[in-house]
Each structure stands twice: as C-alpha cells, then as structure tokens.
Write a structure and sequence with these properties.
The protein has 146 residues and is of the alpha+beta class. Helices cover 42% and strands 22% of the residues. It has 3 helices and 5 strands; from the N terminus they run H-H-H-E-E-E-E-E. It has a 5-stranded mixed beta sheet, with no helix packed on it. The chain starts with a helix and ends with a strand.
Length: 146
C-alpha cells in the first residue's frame, strides 16, 4: 500500500485530535486545523514545501488567534470562589451560633464543616450563603432577607 501525502496529513490531523481528546488541550485542535490545511494543500497538488508552509502558517495562526482571544476575554474567578468549579458556592447553611473570632461549625451535606464569616458587619446566627470554599473552610455571608 502506498501512503500518499494527503493520507499522511490526515493521519497527523487525526492523531492531533486524538491527543486533544486525551489531554483536553484545546490548542492541539488548532494544530490539527493546520495539519488539515496541509492535507488540503496536498490534495490541491502543491509540493511538500508548500504543504508544510500552509500547515505551519495556519496552525500557528489559529493557535495564536485562540490564545489572543482567550487573553482578551473575561477572567474567571479563582476556583475557591467560582461556582462553575465548586457546586457548593451559592448553597445555604444554617449557622446556629458564632464564636467571637467569626467562626462556627455547621452541618452541611451530611458532615460537620467549619465556617468563617466573610460578610460585612458582625455575624449573626441564621441562614447564610456559601461564597467560598478554601482548605475545608466554608466562607459564608448572611443570606438576603426574603
């Protein structure tokens, strides 16, 4: 069986897509687009140098474009405060009493958790909303009154 240039480019494209699926590195998809450009230029009958140039320029261009698009986009909150990362953020807990240092113990999701008051003013017992999760501590603030 004779391996043609387009076949090799399509195999490289498939390998890059498979590597992206295995690692979750989205930039590999941009490089796969470059390899696909190499395959299309091979189908068009261009020589090996033109195929490599097309693959390199488009792969690098897509990669740089994606990088700059992400750099200009909104930054996500740190994981300790990000509801997309931690499902506990936004949940409510009942704080029965506060210690003088602004900490307490609460029952949450079947276990005992340590909580810190992160809101303004003096902490008062009652319903509180989880705003952060850091090293086994829940950061809470008073729940809004209904």
């Amino acid at each position: 069986m004779d391996w043609t240039a387009p076949t090799l480019w399509w195999l490289a494209t498939g390998a890059l897509v498979a590597a992206e699926l295995a690692t979750g590195t989205f930039y590999l998809l941009m490089l796969a687009l470059g390899a696909a450009a190499g395959a299309l230029s091979a189908h068009a009958g261009l020589g090996p140098t033109a195929q490599w140039v097309a693959a390199a320029l488009l792969g690098a261009g897509f990669t740089a474009g994606w990088h700059f698009r992400r750099a200009r986009g909104p930054k996500s909150a740190p994981a300790a405060f990000n509801q997309d990362v931690n499902i506990d953020i936004g949940a409510t807990v009942l704080v029965p009493a506060w210690a003088e240092d602004g900490t307490s113990q609460v029952a949450y999701r079947g276990s005992s958790w340590r909580v810190r008051h992160t809101g303004t003013g003096a902490p008062v017992p009652g319903q509180h909303v989880i705003v952060s999760v850091q090293s086994g501590w829940l950061g809470v603030t008073a729940a809004p009154a209904n």
